[in-house]
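Running co-folding for nicotinamide-adenine-dinucleotide.
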Amino acid sequence: MGVFEAIGADHHERVVVGHDPATGLRAIIAIYSTDLGPALGGTRLFPYPDDDAALVDALRLSKGMAFKAAASGLDLGGGKAVIIGDRSMITDDLWRAYGRFVDSLAGAYITAEDVGTTTDDMHVIAEETKWVVGRAADDHGAGDPSPATARGVVRAMQAVASHLHGSDSLSGARIAVQGVGKVGSALVEFLVEEGAEVVIADIKQEAADALVERFGVKAVAKDDILLEECDILSPCSLGASLRVDTIPNLRCRAVVGSANNQLATDEDDNRIADAGIIYVPDFVANAGGLIHVSAELDEFNAKLVSRRISGIYDAVLSILSQAAADNLTPNEAAVRFAEDRIRREGNGVTFRHGGQ
Ligand code: NAD
């Protein structure tokens, strides 16, 4: 597959390749749009099987970041970086080479941590560029965004409860959480505080056991969590939980989780709607982390961050009612909302290039 074929109809604003043979750095930065502001998105370190897989991931994730920023009212574009490899190749020199690569884009792209990268990595990258957020709280940063992401997921769940029952209380709601890592474990804590009945699963047994002990929640086998009868299923592990083979077996009324790219394919959006299940788009439900890290760009204001994360509630309610009014899936309604905002309030680059 060639680069232009991969970009296809999406018309990304810019795709840049960074290669530093001395450190083994092989990175791709994809910028979908800078229409609303600089393209903020994390750096994913992953052992992609080949360059094409890395490129496709960067393109898909950067587009998702643009929609996430637009839908959550942030003045940011969307970008994402991928590095091909794993932790065994990581050295400070590699991060410095990567920092210079990010710096060469002069602020069009701002990086942060993502799957496979940490706040410590951002610290080293920051030696070479100022275009980095997601640093530790004692290192000019706002600290781990995961609890903020979990807060936003709770607000999205409350909006769904309100949409379904006219009350935003989660007390007594049965909620199944798939994956209890950084976001999932914070989410479980918040849900227990809200009085929900929580069921969890993780491929790491010790992660699930720790929460069972701490909160008295129930753990099930990883393959059973998607089969749990519940009010809300919350995918908080990796993507593609909602697939042609899993959707027919779901026994939930709604899906609201933190994982990026929960729908394996575009067709799964209609599949889940046809199954009578409300799917809150991942890029709306999980925007809390982006809201949190982006606040580092100005003087960090915890009250403003909290108010913006709370606003995910209104965003979800409005997307659900717009979807019902226009006979769209919530995902289609959210994409339309995000694209309209980019078109209306942006500087026109993305759509001048022909993006749809
Ligand atoms: P994490 O790696 O800390 O946690 C993921 C957990 O899922 C791990 O405990 C892992 O063992 C578990 N897991 C993996 N596959 C599983 C499976 N098949 N069944 C059950 N458990 C499984 O990651 P995280 O930071 O908590 O992020 C979770 C998801 O949310 C990711 O998709 C991430 O991209 C997305 N996300 C995270 C943030 C954030 O602030 N951390 C923000 C936005 C989106």
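Result summary
The chain has a mean pLDDT of 94.
Residues 201 and 225 are 6 Å apart (CA to CA).
Job closed.
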